[in-house]
Write a structure and sequence with these properties.
Blueprint (H helix, E strand, L loop, with lengths): L12 H38 L6 E4 L4 E7 L3 E7 L2 E6 L3 E5 L3 H4 L1
Antiparallel strand pairs: 1-2, 1-5, 2-3, 3-4
């Protein structure tokens, strides 16, 4: 009287898979729209930092524009004005500029 009958949900296994389909679709969209482009950008940044050499014109994450004068393992010496050099970490370099950009500023 107080206990209701329990019925097994046999034959509804296909419905369980369909309930996870929206979750899978959201994950795939999330991967292709957010994660993949971010991984690609990080790879390009890493390759740009690895390819730095003397004479390259760069912009740091702080907005300092200069020309690379010396490259070490973790640090780069940048000439920001005539006879004025600063040392920054390689990870602080945001962009490599095309040659001649500093003269046009």
């Amino acid at each position: 009287m107080f206990i209701s009958n329990a019925y097994a949900a046999g034959g509804l296994a296909g419905n369980d898979i369909m309930s996870f389909l929206p979750l899978v679709v959201i994950f795939v969209l999330f991967f292709f729209m957010i994660i993949r482009p971010q991984m690609k950008q990080a790879k390009e940044q890493k390759n740009m930092i690895a390819a730095l050499q003397k004479g390259d014109e760069i912009v740091t994450s702080g907005g300092i524009v200069g020309k690379v004068t010396k490259v070490n393992d973790d640090f780069v010496t940048v000439e920001v004005a005539a006879n004025t050099e600063i040392t920054v970490q390689k990870q602080a370099i945001q962009t490599a500029l095309p040659k001649g950009t500093i003269k046009s500023l």
